[in-house]
Amino acid sequence: MGHFSISDLENISGIKAHTIRMWEQRYGILRPVRTQTNIRTYCDDDLRRLLNVATLCGQGHRISKVAQLSEQELASAVISCCENPHDYARQINGLLAATLEMDEPQLNKLLSGAIRQLGFEDAIMRVAYPFLQRIGVLWQTGSINPAQEHLVTNLIRQKIVASIDTLTPVQPSQARRWVLFLPEGELHELALLFMNYALRARAHHVLYLGQNLPESELQAVYKAYRPHAVCTVLTAVPDRSQVQAYISTLATQCSDCTLVLYGPLMNCQNLTLPDNAINPRLMTDFLACIADVGNGQKR
């Protein structure tokens, strides 16, 4: 069971702390307990209720009316209202509430609806990506379990793979060529998989090698495929102390192409980038630089 401070609730729900306090004191929507040092802490049920209340209030319902709903009435009202394709905050809160309930049909309905109404790429960037950031906060605070996290990531993975299959393939000889892979031992694939989609949607050819590629295999692939760019995502691997050495080795192996390095391990320390390497900090930065990567490379 999670134990949240009011600042945790603010960060996860997007509702300001002073509003949460008012709702708690005036309407009793939350039931915090106090620590021995008299600090309020909130549990998973408080978070779930807050997400549902925020979803309905964001649609214009009065808090005085919402506070009177039972848990079942509140959940039913939320399910029926997460339909506006441009109300991203409400969709994200709906996804979070469905995750906490392990409600796979509702998760699938919300994600599929966002994709249908916004288009795949906008749905990922505006709904799924911020949703996953919130999931990360819940994971860090111990408020979701591995089964809930796996449910979310595998469902989004399925959506990405299905969308990739709808794209028209291009021939490698007629397109800019990319190798996408994760280092040996790295299993966090969603960002790389979305990059695969984004590149293919822009008529690039991708050799997608996926998770857990031994370093020794990359050089043979590089020589055979001769890519314009090689891209990897560093989330948990290699060890922080080995990141600089790892990217230096990659830059040497892939010396005559652009090396695209993305992920948390690239953002949390002072690294010296090789001349042929770039580090897009955000996924929006990666999408913006796709057209420029590989220009001027001789093949």
UniProtKB/TrEMBL annotation:
PROSITE patterns: HTH_MERR_2 (PS50937). Residues 3-72 form the HTH merR-type domain. GO terms for molecular function: cobalamin binding; DNA binding; DNA-binding transcription factor activity; metal ion binding. It comes from the Bacteria. SUPFAM superfamilies: Cobalamin (vitamin B12)-binding domain (SSF52242), Putative DNA-binding domain (SSF46955). Coiled coil: none annotated. This is MerR family transcriptional regulator. The lineage of its organism: Bacteria, Pseudomonadati, Bacteroidota, Cytophagia, Cytophagales. It comes from Hymenobacter metallicola. It holds the Pfam family MerR_1. InterPro entries: Cbl-bd_cap (IPR003759), Cobalamin-bd_sf (IPR036724), DNA-bd_dom_put_sf (IPR009061), MerR-type_HTH_dom (IPR000551), MerR_fam (IPR047057), Meth_synthase_dom (IPR036594). Keywords: DNA-binding, Repressor, Transcription, Transcription regulation.
